Amino acid sequence: MAIPLFGEACPAGFPSPAGDYVEAELDLNSLCIRHPSATYFLRASGESMRDLGLYNGDILIVDRAETAQEGDIVIAEMDGGFTVKRLRLRPRPALEPMNPDYPTLYPETLTLFGVVTHFIHRTRARL
After folding, report:
1. Cα–Cα–Cα angle for 116, 120, 123, nearest 5°?
2. Residue 15 above 60 pLDDT?
3. What percent of the chain shows pLDDT beyond 90?
4. What is 34-127's CATH number, 3.60.40.10, 3.90.226.10, 3.40.50.1240, 2.10.109.10?
5. Among this protein's residues, is 85 annotated catalytic?
6. Is 48 an active-site residue?
7. Which member of 16, 37, 45, 85 is catalytic?
């Protein structure tokens, strides 16, 4: 479904008088999904990525076709389950939380299940 995309950026202040000008339509699939056959959605759980702005219940868009790089947010296997963390490759592979209340993980074997390319965060209070 294509939704109108307004051509002017939205400052976090007063609205622009040109705010009624629609530049194009935007399909969120084309914006967020580069490799459709390798992309899946996953719901975040917990608070370990809070300082990144990723909260419990947010939807992750994960691309298995992307090659993970230093600093990417990744889905990794840990102790038979999945975790979402920032990937650190130097000085040794690590999975770094974005909340100081959680420890950095240093897995002996690092198995990745994709790179988080976007996440969807609800701004209204959940009922």
Report:
1. 145
2. no
3. 64
4. 2.10.109.10
5. yes
6. yes
7. 85
